Amino acid sequence: MCCSQPGFLQQRSILLLALIVLVVSSCRKPQNENVPQVVDQRFRMEVILESPDIMTPIGITIDDQDNLYVLESHTHFPRSDYKGQKFDRIKKGIDENGDGRPDRWIVYADDLDDGMNIEWHAGSIYLVEKDSVFRITDTDNDGMADQKEVLVQMKTAQGVFDHAGLLGITIGADGWIYVSKGNSAGIDLEIMGSDGSKIASYGAGGSVFRCRLDGSEVEEIATGFWNPFDIKFLKSGKLMLVDNDPDSRGPNRLVEVVPGGDYGYQSMYGGSGLHPFLAWNGELPGTLPYAAGIGEAPSGLIDASYSNFPIEYQGNVLATIWEENSIVKIPLESFNSTVRGESEILVQGDSLFHPVALAANSKGDIFITDWVLRQYPNHGYGRLLMLTSDSGKPIDPGVPEQNAALSMLESPPDIDNLFAQLSSEDPFVRTVSRELIIRGGNEARILDLLDHQDKTLRLEGLLMLNKSDIDLGKEALRNLLYDESIPIRKMTLIYLATHLRSDMYDDIIGTLAADKITVEMFETYLEAVKYLQADFIQQFKARTKPVAKQIKVELPENFIAGIIQDPTLSDNIKSLALPYLEEDDNSISYLLQQLDQSGADFQKAILKKLRTYFSETSAEAFLKIAIKKDNDPEVRAQALLNLELQGGSFCNEVTNILQEEDQLVVEAATRYLCRCRGEADEKIKSALKENLAAIAVRNQCLGVTPENRPGTHEEWLAALNGDGDVLNGWMIFQSPKAQCISCHQVNKWGGVFGPDLSTIASSKSKEQLIYAVLQPDKEIAPEWQGWYVKDKEGVTHLGRQIDVGDKNAELMVATGEFINFKEIQAFGTIPNSLMPDGLENQLTVGEMNDLVTFLMSLR
Predict the structure, then answer these.
(1) Of 333, 261, 255, 266, residue with least CA distance to 294
(2) Is 524 helix (H, G, I), strand (E, B) or coil?
(3) Degrees to nearest 5, angle at CA 264 with 263 and 269
(4) In this predicted model, what pLDDT tens digit does every residue of 398-452 receive, in sequence order?
(5) E strand intervals along 361-517
(6) What is the pTM of this model?
(7) Which residue of 190, 304, 668, 824 sits 20 to 30 Å from the alpha carbon of 373, by its own alpha carbon?
(8) What are phi and psi of 171, to 5 degrees?
(9) For residue 599, what is the DSSP state?
(10) From CA 604, how far away is CA 639, in angstroms rounded?
(11) Residue 172, helix vs strand vs coil
(12) CA distance linking residue 460 with residue 457, whole number of Å
């Protein structure tokens, strides 16, 4: 599978080749204009080469003589009037005087197509095109390649977007080639090695596979990525990649890759990344977390240990952030068997800096390819830059260490030791152990785990079942579906859906009547039902669509309404279904009828569902619930909150509630009465008597500020002891003056613009929660980075999860919807949090304390 002279590269005339060599050998001296700024003043950044001498450079690698090889892209969606080359090529920068800088440039290889990345190893260049891996070699030592061997090919049912095919390449100390693949939109594909070994997938996400240096023994190493544009080994031997994020779930991420790793994403479940079968940071059992969240469109990475930077950079990873015109450093710290860190900007450029790939020479200088313009199609611009310090030698020039986890694929540990490791608290250790156990067979011992008295080991058995070919019987699956452990029941639903076990459909339906479905499981339950419909299974097995996610999935007709109206199901199950009920005249009418006839749990759910349904009929229904003293206090408070959002005025009716004893109801009534002024003031004041908390709410409505109100953040921190009323805090969370629920979800109720807070207290302390409210700008996680778009009329719009095209931008706005802005004037990140500050000014001290108490209860 190789092409030698004259079939490769020599098809063009000697005269043309000589002309190319002459042109690129006499490159003009770069102007060093608009050089990106380095935050650390001990570094220097300089331009080594620029257009027209280098155009849209992408991959870069350096050989053991410090010669540079730069992959120049010309086939990445070129416009019809593009005046550049008709093929990609690799330029070679030759260091003739040993100073680490190229003195002369030649064309090393041309006639390439859809090139993505390159890696030098043992005298050859290994090239990744979007659907192939090649080895390119200069066999006659004239400085230019004359042999091109096909090592791996990816065959697909239809064309693949350039950024979704084969992407990154690196070669390990173990002598294997490692390649990262994009999600390919879940297309029906097959990756085949030189010996016929292959990987087939349909509906999968991105992955990492490996093969021998000759392209043989292709095997999958890890799955669950979006578009992992670059992959590299660290000096420590760890295998890392940078991965772009789905449409609605961030952040982009730096990931450690281990054998058997599942990093959460599969294309067939949609591009948003929000499907309950998906994870992004280890949220589902069996999936792994990222090492660091990073900025938009990461394209390249390198271990700073190979640089000549100051010693404190040892162990840092550098990553190019294409969309944000920057290079970040990520100091990594050991965490169990893996690493983690937070990114910090090291280099910041202007809008004409779009860094892609990174490589280091023997002196520790870092070379950077720069796409320059923010345009995906080839445009003819480009730069090659160098980042260096004064030491002149790498921090750690030693030989890279072997990857311990990958080495175990060749020499696995004792099987008993692997099973013992399944009890480890480290998910990376458990992942590698599961992979090695599965590779070794061990079917009987895996099945034994499903009956283990330890629920954590039952779960490990289920996770191995999910990745193996073991066919489990209905009785064993039914036991897992009804297991005491919620994670086991949830993962069993996913297993049954992904393995198309329609024979278990009735058992799944039966879990509702058995009350085995909880709030954290309900959406998973619904999706399992969808993927077990006969029509979907038939089409998926027949691969009737080239892209798996194009196959329609839907619930049976009126499925949600059927749950809500089923008299045999508990109010708890009906309440879980309500967020998913489509709002139409019939459903609204039914819920209003049920409001005064149902138990308290279902009443609360109905009221939350109808919270923003505005009509005279609904207002009267809410009032009826609110004034009825026999109703549950939380139900009455929720009805008053709903009434607060309605039009009309029920001042007299609600004022009568103020004389009651239940504080939750009284404060909810007082908040409603903010709209009632004038003659109502005295009656309200008289009714409140000595209820200090409710009086404070009323005064706050009237703009009366108490003298002892906290002013500084420190005073607020001291005033909020977290021993308030949880239920009142929940009402405040939903209230119009706090509006938390507009952006945040709690147990599936609320918006999706901000983080889901259902379990926020399990990861945040009281102090962190308070500061998140008082100082939302203090700590902004990468996945919640705000963006702005200035439309063609000059109006600025704020949102998150941006997707920028050539002349347009799609932005997620506060409603959770994506809006496509055409012919935009500008876009970029915003320095502040999207969460508005000053919330404390809208609430009393008591209300703030109740809100904090409520947040602290969410575990």
Answers:
(1) 255
(2) helix
(3) 150
(4) 788 999 999 999 999 999 999 999 999 999 999 999 999 999 999 999 999 999 9
(5) 366-370, 383-388
(6) 0.87
(7) 304
(8) -125, 125
(9) -
(10) 8
(11) coil
(12) 5
Measure CA 88 to chain center: 32
Specify whether the CB–CB gap between 295 and 252 falls below 8 A: yes
Each residue of 743-774: pLDDT tens digit?
Answer: 999 988 888 888 889 888 887 888 888 888 88
SS3 301: strand
Residue range 148-183, pLDDT digits in tens: 999 999 999 777 877 789 999 999 999 999 999 999
Asked whether the beta carbons of 255 and 290 are under 8 A apart, the reply is: yes
β-partners of residue 169 are: 179
530 close to 508: Cβ distance less than 8 angstroms: no
Q: Which two tokens stand for residue 232?
A: 């590299």
Amino acid at 120: W
What is the distance between the alpha carbons of residues 282 and 464, in angstroms, rounded to a whole number?
17
By percentage, how much of the chain surpasses pLDDT 70?
Answer: 96
Round to whole Å and give the CA distance between 157 and 598.
53
> Rounded to an integer, what distance in angstroms lies between the CA atom of residue 757 and that of residue 761?
8
Cα 582 from Cα 352, distance rounded (Å): 47
Tell me the backbone φ, ψ of residue 660, rounded to 5 degrees.
-80, 175
Scanning 1-131, the segments in alpha helix (DSSP H) are 14-25
Q: Rounded to 10 degrees, what is the CA torsion of 268, 518, 508, 571?
A: -130
Q: Which two tokens stand for residue 716?
A: 């607020």
Q: Give CA–CA dist 482/273, Å, rounded.
A: 28
Question: What is the predicted pLDDT for the residue at 185?
Answer: 85
